[in-house]
Amino acid sequence: MWKTYRFLGIIFIFLVCMMLAACGDGNDGNQENEGNNAADSNGNKELGEKSITLGTDSYVSNTSNTYVAKLMLEEIGYDAEINQTDVGVEYTGLSDGSTDAIVGAWLPTTHGSYWEEYKDDLEKINTVTEKVELGLAVPAYMEDINSIEDLANNTNNIGKKLEWTITGISPGAGEMKLMESEVMPGYGLNENWELLESSGAAMSAALSDAIDQEEPIVVTLWTPHWTFNEFDLKILDDPKGTFGEPDDVFSVAGKDFKEQSPAAYKFLEQFSIEKVDTQEMMLDIKEGMGEEAAAQKFIDNHPDLKEKWLEGF
């Protein structure tokens, strides 16, 4: 009988130990879940969909800022990639969801036609950079050419000297569309002048080559741009206002982006950068640094901006 009681006692103790162990595991699991839930309950920590595609065009002022945004989103916890296309494809991607967001929407003028076409599917999130401008630029040594009207009036025989050619950028760019629809007809330039399609890099190279030879040249240009730090340039006056008022640069996303990736949306609400800062990266890129490396250098050198962008994270 005593052996029976002893055996039952051992069984009882064993069962009690098993129950306590089970309860302990359950508490640990609950604590772990509570920790995860606490992180998730903080709106700043809700990543949502972690794969994010940022769109950009090929112009360094936009690509440099886009790489900064990419690196910061990755620091938050996202898997970010960049899809570089022309501007039209950029907005199509935003509309159909193949691109999640951009940080280089020049509005209301430069990208105005694209915004009007797709705005019902899109949302402006924040102003990234204020007061960026478009225009025709010439080297400062072209002292007699100060206005677009000087081109129209063929001042100092400038048309013949330039073979009646204005050096432009890629045909899909908003500035090129504006040149064709407003600037050239507004000044009657389409009667004699040709707008040469090229690319941002080709335009910059042509400008650099002309300045090296101190030859005349007229190019489509914008701020911010590294050439204003490298060369003594002037933007021609636009008395008829064909280029419109200076744009602001916005971050833009599809209308479901906030719900889809809330922490990324919050970051973009806080992401802004001055023209002079963008130009700092552009100079590094022009001198041979990769775009992502230039963006990382900028972030490392500006901890105050990084702190501002990540406030609340």
UniProtKB/TrEMBL annotation:
Keywords: Cell membrane, Membrane, Signal, Transport
Subcellular location, principal: membrane
GO biological process, one term: choline transport
Leader sequence segment: 1-21
Stored Pfam families: OpuAC
Location of the ABC-type glycine betaine transport system substrate-binding domain: 50-300
GO CC terms of this entry: ATP-binding cassette (ABC) transporter complex
Subcellular compartments: Cell membrane
Gene Ontology molecular functions: amine transmembrane transporter activity; carnitine transmembrane transporter activity
PANTHER family associated with the record: GLYCINE BETAINE/PROLINE BETAINE TRANSPORT SYSTEM PERMEASE PROTEIN PROW, GLYCINE BETAINE_PROLINE BETAINE TRANSPORT SYSTEM PERMEASE PROTEIN PROW
Name listed for the protein in its UniProt record: Glycine/betaine ABC transporter permease
Biological source species: Lentibacillus amyloliquefaciens
